[in-house]
Design goal:
The structure holds two protein chains of two kinds.
Chain A lengths: L2 H17 L6 H30 L4 H8 L3 E9 L4 E7 L1 H20 L7 H20 L3 H12 L1 H9 L4 H30 L6 H5 L5 H18 L8 H8 L2 H26 L1 H27 L4 H22 L2 H32 L15 H14 L6 H15 L6 H12 L1 H17 L16 H19 L2 H20 L2
Antiparallel strand pairs in A: 1-2
Helix pairs in contact in A: 1-2, 1-5, 2-4, 2-5, 3-21, 4-5, 4-12, 4-15, 4-20, 4-21, 5-6, 5-7, 5-12, 6-8, 7-8, 8-10, 8-11, 10-12, 10-13, 11-14, 12-13, 12-14, 12-15, 12-21, 13-14, 13-18, 13-19, 14-15, 14-17, 14-19, 15-16, 15-17, 15-20, 15-21, 16-19, 16-20, 17-18, 17-20
Chain B lengths: L11 H4 L3 H20 L1 H29 L9 E12 L2 E9 L1 H24 L6 H19 L4 H19 L6 H36 L8 H4 L11 H4 L2 H7 L11 H16 L8 H4 L5 H10 L4 H8 L1 H7 L1 H21 L5 H22 L6 H31 L10 H4 L1 H15 L5 H15 L3 H26 L6 H4 L6 H16 L5 H4 L14 H22 L4 H10 L1 H7 L4 H48 L6 H23 L1
Antiparallel strand pairs in B: 1-2
């Protein structure tokens, strides 16, 4: 069994271990989950190290050749009659997404240390979901990909519906239905490709060799992009996100906004742009426009929110807009920026939702106007919150800046298939969000943390506990690392987007 | 005279130029994470020593630079140390490094000197504050960011540290985070400068786009000799590339559509927008007076001597590009000139000593901007004058703020009308404050006289008579408002008990005052023209030009005389004038209601007319239509559920009907 299979197996085995632990032993469940995700984190470190060694760019000349390959490939025929196989492998994009997922699930486990109702079921579902996420990021067979994709989406319904707050059943239902409609779009697209290619295979690399006509690509691409876009909060299919996030329990919000929403951008990039380059060219400008709306609309919508979770959810709509915007620019810098934004937004928003949970656990309210002056009693949480906020407004030195400048440069430099004036104007519109983001982040955080303490009971609240400090500390360290020395990450991603860029430029 | 420089074999300080920003960075991390929880006192010591070490290295770099390129000769730009930080795409890389040329050397010296003195001063001023250690961590963070900005050899690094100084400024303005006014001032400062930075960012994107695309990845735009002064190959974002004649000639020829404006002008005006935000030029000045909510040492360091001159520095750094554009340079000149007048007028009416100084800073920054604006590549005296004034202003304005801090420390109030008679109680503060007041007012033989003289001379020499006249008037106003606060604070009777019981500051606080006072006296004698210049032509240090010095001195004397007339003895004369001006006085005192205009635009218009409707639209329309589709699905389910009776008879009846319908359709299709 290869490294990647282990990467899928470990969370699954942990799920089983949790299931077979008696429910009364809920403290053991926490530890099993923490150990399981800890092992996963170690495996991820090993994978990253081995990938870096194997694909190490010794010279610039061999870099592209080495990094564009897939590594640790495992291929096992599964339903041979249908051309379905178990085909896993990784490239730089997958590796960076796996790192993200491992960090989020580990810190999410620590952040859920206080879940005391049905602890066992909660962790079992959470780990099952993560199994799906890891599966998606290593699958290079479309059927396998789709199977894991659904595995990642469905447990969400139960996690929100049972452990959520507020109108949780409504939110859970809405989220699941909207994402399933998106999946249906994707499924139609996938079957169309399977059928039209005539190759009788779901192998992603084999399908890349198929010659799809321009017309075919032009009608399939929007299905794929919108289908995945729903999960990536593409306007106007983003409305599940505010409701879903506000109802979800802490770790689920972290995982959902941090990782699951990235599956959308990942799918649009991996399947949409890679397999359907002509379709991407035809639709690039349209989707750039739509995602520009995402970016501005999300940030303007966030200004007026009163609930910290709605606030962060709208902020996520804006930031995930950068991911899809980057994909739609169809440039090297844009695609790199999209991947990097997936990573940095994942960490940042994981930190945000984790912190919201921690603050809520103390104040029992998430309403911004009800809080005030909390920095005095919880300096650690306040500082972490500010760092997350600064990352989200694109402060240099934190990961968000590197990603956003890539996306902006990609959009501004434009591509040969779209009107350069239009792409330039759209990019300038998108840059305006940096001001709006500063407005809502600083307004919101100042109300919650600064000024005098507004409620007398808040005087006695406590600062972060040890697991909370470890969780937030890890996330902050990641943000700082990527922000200060971005070149490692860029190297990881850069060559892996080259195959997509090559396919785009081949056709013209 | 040309000098041959071997970039690979420089002295120790040059090769290790990164030490200058590195000391405060390391100290910031150490103090913030490890030392602060252990010992407040030790935090201050470590922080101060770190900045002092930077000062030592900066001095060594300055010595070495001027040994290689002697004063009066040519002053090439060197990049003795750099590394590849971020590769956006092949041929488009950002190399973080340290640039060494006259202006960066000057700024490094100014920043490290003032920062060291402010650190020493703060260790006395902030004594007893619960956030003592945190304060020093922030000061170090700021000093690191500012030095990184000064050292930036490319526009992206400049932008990166530009934002970081913004954040450190934000943290320090809001240092008293439980005080609502400080919190809102810090937000305002960040958001206003962020808005300006949007322009900067778009300017950077534009410059980057054309720098990359006009020459492709292959053709280096600058001559081999310039490139030989850098340790890394030049990149499109490097200042050397962006200000090279080759690039500017090609880029300057491109017109923006059919408007008659060149794209270069557009780009430079956008870049200037960022500079105007950071240097608080009208109409982006509104954050600076409020920034005085921060502790006074912060105002001295960040909002007087260093960060606010970053905008001036940026314009100076990009000066050749502004010069080629021409139109953009005029924008700089007039915005600077207007700001200097506008702020000086407001400064005459404010009662908060720090706010008067803040408006004075605005006015003097306007002076520096207008000096740059009137310079040209052929006649670059204004460029030198601007840097000269930046240097002298840093000395006397830091001194004024620290002196004000000492007074505030003694009487626990910012209002000048709570003070009075302090010259007897605080002799050292009084004398040093007087020196600074004389210097900023432009009296010979203090430093301000020389730098102002050079600015006025450059305006006149390049035919900007209007700006010259305006600057002369501002010089008079400056003397007036400075003597106003000086007289009210230090002369007359004690107006409050606090003033009566005031006493001199501790040595940790007055020693920096004395050092800065000495600098304020002697700084004017530096032959700046020999050290700082641009282009081939060397700016002559022209000695004293009496045609300019005499009117300038008269203006200063007039201002001082008016202040003496109005503010000695009883204050009734000033009040009478204020009353007779009526509405005009109120208008000025309320700072022309610019803040209210902004509040109206942001809160009334943007929040209410854009943000709130979007939030509503999202819930009601976008989400509403999603819910509506769900409802429609459900409703259609209900609608057809009556067919599901469970009776075989009705099912078969429906089946028969359906089959008939199909047959009918087929039949219709066939005939």
């Amino acid at each position: 069994m290869g490294l990647l299979s282990w990467l899928i197996a470990v969370p699954f085995i942990t799920t089983l271990a949790v299931i077979f632990t008696p429910a009364s032993q809920w403290k053991a469940v926490r530890w099993i989950s923490a150990v399981g995700t800890g092992i996963q984190l170690a495996l991820t470190a090993l994978l990253t190290y081995r990938y870096w060694i194997a694909a190490a760019p010794d010279t610039t000349a061999t870099m592209v050749a080495k990094l564009t390959k897939l590594y640790f490939v495992e291929r096992i025929p599964w339903f041979e009659s249908l051309g379905i196989q178990y085909f896993v492998g990784v490239d730089g994009i997958s590796v960076s997404m796996i790192i993200l997922t491992s960090i989020i699930i580990f810190t999410g486990t620590l952040a859920s240390w206080n879940v005391e109702s049905r602890t066992k079921e909660f962790f079992a579902l959470l780990l099952l979901l993560v199994t799906g996420v890891f599966g998606v990021f290593v699958s290079f067979d479309l059927f396998l990909f789709f199977m894991f994709y659904e595995l990642a989406v469905l447990p969400m319904y139960l996690l929100i519906g049972i452990w959520g707050t507020g109108p949780k059943e409504y939110s859970a239902m809405k989220l699941t239905l909207m994402l399933l409609v998106g999946s249906a779009f994707v499924l139609v697209g996938l079957f169309a490709m399977y059928h039209v290619s005539g190759l009788h295979t779901f192998d992603l690399q084999a399908l890349a060799g198929a010659s799809f006509s321009k017309d075919f690509q032009t009608w399939v691409f929007p299905l794929i992009f919108v289908g995945f876009g729903v999960l990536g909060a593409l306007y106007p299919f983003h409305t599940w996100s505010p409701d879903g996030h506000s109802s979800a329990p802490t770790a689920v919000s972290m995982l959902h906004a941090g990782v699951l929403m990235k599956l959308g951008g990942y799918g649009a990039l991996r399947i949409g742009v890679y397999l359907l380059p002509e379709g991407a060219k035809a639709w690039g400008l349209f989707f750039m426009g739509l995602t520009t709306i995402n970016i501005l609309y999300g940030s303007l919508g966030a200004v007026m929110q009163k609930d910290l979770k709605y606030f962060t959810a709208y902020s996520s709509v804006s930031h995930c807009g950068f991911v899809l915007f980057g994909v739609a620019t169809l440039t090297v810098m844009g695609l790199k920026g999209a991947v990097l934004q997936m990573f940095s937004h994942g960490i940042m928003t994981g930190l945000f939702f984790g912190l919201i949970g921690m603050v809520y656990g103390r104040t029992h309210t998430r309403l911004i106007p009800d809080m005030g002056g909390l920095a005095k009693v919880m300096p650690w949480l306040a500082t972490s919150f500010y760092i997350a906020g600064l990352a989200s407004l694109g402060l240099p030195g934190l990961a968000g800046f590197v990603a956003e400048t890539h996306v902006f440069l990609g959009g501004f430099f434009g591509n040969p298939w779209s009107n350069p004036t239009a792409t330039g104007v759209l990019t300038i519109l998108a840059t305006m969000s940096i001001v709006v983001t500063a407005v809502y982040v600083l307004r919101g955080l100042a109300t919650v943390f600064q000024g005098p303490i507004t409620v007398a009971e808040y005087e006695t609240l406590t600062d972060a506990t040890l697991p909370e400090k470890i969780a937030t500390g890890m996330l902050i360290a990641t943000l700082v690392f990527v922000g200060v020395v971005p070149q490692y990450f860029i190297t990881l991603i850069e060559a892996s987007v080259m195959p997509m860029i090559n396919r785009l430029s081949m056709g013209s | 005279m040309t000098t041959e420089i071997d970039i690979q074999h420089l002295g120790f300080a040059m090769r290790h130029a990164w030490l200058v920003p590195a000391f405060p960075l390391v100290s910031f991390v150490l103090v913030a994470l490890f030392i602060r929880p252990l010992s407040q006192r030790f935090s201050a010591v470590v922080a101060t020593l770190a900045v002092f070490s930077s000062w030592v290295v900066a001095c060594a770099i300055a010595c070495e630079y001027y040994r290689l390129c002697p004063p009066g000769g040519e002053h090439p730009v060197l990049v003795p140390w750099a590394f590849e930080w971020l590769r956006y795409q092949p041929g488009f890389t950002v190399n973080v490094g340290v640039i060494v040329d006259p202006i960066s050397v000057l700024l490094m010296l100014v920043v490290t000197t003032v920062s060291t003195l402010v650190h020493i001063y703060s260790s006395g001023y902030m004594k007893g504050d619960p956030g003592y250690g945190r304060f020093f961590a922030y000061l170090n963070l700021f000093t690191f960011s500012m030095l990184g900005l000064v050292a930036a050899p490319n526009i992206v690094q400049m932008y990166v540290f530009w934002e970081l100084v913004g954040v450190s400024s934000f943290l320090l303005i809001g240092f008293y985070y439980q005080k609502p006014s400080a919190v809102s001032a810090s937000k305002k400062a960040f958001i206003v400068t962020r808005f300006a930075d949007l322009g900067f960012l778009i300017g950077v994107l534009t410059l980057g786009y054309f720098a990359f695309n006009l020459f492709g990845a292959t053709a280096p735009a600058v001559s081999a000799r310039t490139a030989a002064h850098c340790t890394m190959p030049l990149q499109p974002m490097d200042f050397l590339y962006l200000t090279s004649p080759e690039f500017l000639a090609k880029f300057g020829a491109l017109a923006a559509g059919s408007t008659g404006i060149t794209l270069l002008t557009v780009a430079m005006v956008l870049v200037f927008m960022g500079a105007a935000g950071k240097s608080a030029m009208f109409p982006l000045h509104i954050w600076l007076p409020d920034a005085m909510e921060g502790p006074t040492p912060v105002s001295a360091l960040i909002h007087a001597a260093t960060m606010v001159v970053a905008g001036v520095y940026l314009v100076a750094r990009m000066f050749p590009a502004f010069a080629v554009s021409g139109a953009a340079l005029l924008v700089v000149a007039y915005v600077g000139a207007f700001t200097s007048l506008f702020a000086a007028v407001i400064g005459t009416t404010q009662d908060d000593i720090k706010r008067v100084l803040a408006f004075s800073t605005l006015s003097q920054l306007g002076y520096m901007m207008l000096a740059l604006g009137v310079a040209t590549m052929d006649s670059p005296l204004g460029y030198t004058a601007s840097m000269f004034h930046l240097f002298t202003h840093a000395c006397f304005k830091a001194l004024l703020f620290l002196g004000a801090g000492s007074v505030i420390h003694a009487v626990h109030s910012n209002e000048i009308w709570d003070m009075g008679g302090l010259r007897k109680k605080m002799p050292i503060t009084h004398i040093t404050f007087l020196i600074a007041t004389l210097a900023i007012s432009g009296f010979w033989p203090l430093s301000g006289f020389f730098s102002k003289d050079e600015i006025l001379a450059s305006a006149l020499a390049n035919g900007h008579t209007f700006i010259f006249g305006l600057a002369l008037f501002v010089a008079g106003l400056t003397a007036f408002y400075m003597f106003r606060i000086y007289l009210v604070t230090f002369w007359g009777d004690f107006r409050t008990d606090k003033a009566h019981h005031a006493h001199e500051a501790p040595p940790l606080m007055w020693i920096p005052l004395v050092i800065l006072a000495v600098l304020s006296v002697v700084a004017g004698y530096v032959p700046m023209g020999k050290f700082v210049s641009i282009g081939v032509e060397h700016a002559e240090h022209h000695g004293i030009n009496f045609a300019i010095a005499i009117p300038a001195t008269i203006a200063a004397l007039l201002g001082t005389g008016t202040a003496l007339l109005l503010y000695t003895g009883s204050g009734s004369r000033a009040d009478a004038i204020a009353r007779s001006l009526g509405g005009v006085h109120t208008l000025i005192k309320q700072k022309f209601y610019i803040d209210e205009v902004y509040l109206f635009i942001t809160h009334r218009l943007i929040f209410n007319l854009v943000s709130r409707p979007i939030a509503w639209f999202d819930r009601a329309v976008v989400d509403g239509s999603m819910n509506a589709s769900a409802w429609a699905t459900r409703a259609s389910g209900y609608l057809f559920s009556w067919m599901q009776t469970g009776q075989v008879q009705s099912y078969s009846a429906w089946f028969a009907c359906g089959a008939m319908l199909v047959l009918l359709v087929l039949w219709a299709a066939l005939i």
